[in-house]
Amino acid sequence: MLEVLNLNFMQNALMAGILVSIICGLIGSLIVINRMTFIAGGIAHGAYGGIGIAFFFSLEPLLGAGAFSLLLALIIATITLNDKARIDSVIGAIWAFGMAIGIIFIDLTPGYSSDLMSYLFGSILAVSDTDIYFMSVICVVFTAVIVLFYRQFVAVSFDSEFASLRGVNTKLFYYILVCMTALCVVATIRVVGLILVIALLTIPPYIAQGLASRLGSMMLISALFSAVFCVVGLFLSFWLNLTSGASIILVASVCFFVFSIFFRRFRG
């Protein structure tokens, strides 16, 4: 059974799952605390536009997704800071715009034959060494940023007005968080895909939130849960010949419902 670990693609898949778990544990916790799930969803689906543009110009798909996601993140951050009353409509429009742009450019791509299912639903077993390097850089940078500015993120997340009065540049940290969310989405595409990325960003933090009393411990617990979901889902997909991204999210969803039922009874 453990012989599969000797396979190079399985080693890459496990490494990708662990790296993405750390990234999602950090950023997902901030997304849940700041109630930015819809913003993350808009960026995730809008990133499809970058993939379509990259295919049209024969570029690396994740490079196109990254650049396009950062552009969408800056637009969303600017609009939501200035007009929070229309945040749902704006994000919904950007969501649809990104998907439409992606579909149109893919339709215009001459001789297009690549399988887009891996970008929509993930293909962790096809993770390359380049993907691992990219995830590693994102993981190290995000960890460093959160460690260095942990107090500022805590202040902005729980009481932005008080943080602003204490001299914290809340707008800057909001932009940083939204941009980090965009890069987190891109790093997670190869594991669970654009369609399912929001689940991996929110389910582990939601469970961790019920078990942790501090943001730091919530991030750690969320990363651990995410790693367990990725590893279990990965082996499940390998043994049963299932889609890896869907298997990971299925495991996470089952744990989510079980936790919700038992946690509510325990609190009751």
UniProtKB/TrEMBL annotation:
Mode of membrane association: Multi-pass membrane protein
Transmembrane annotation, as ranges: 12-33, 38-57, 63-81, 93-112, 132-151, 172-189, 219-240, 246-263
Gene3D superfamilies according to UniProt: ABC transporter involved in vitamin B12 uptake, BtuC (1.10.3470.10)
CDD domains: TM_ABC_iron-siderophores_like
Gene Ontology biological process terms in this record: response to zinc ion; transmembrane transport
A GO cellular component entry from the record: ATP-binding cassette (ABC) transporter complex
Entry keywords, A to Z: Membrane, Transmembrane, Transmembrane helix, Transport
Subcellular location: Cell membrane; Membrane
Stated family: Belongs to the ABC-3 integral membrane protein family.
Protein name stated in the entry: Metal ABC transporter permease
Annotated organism of origin: Campylobacter californiensis
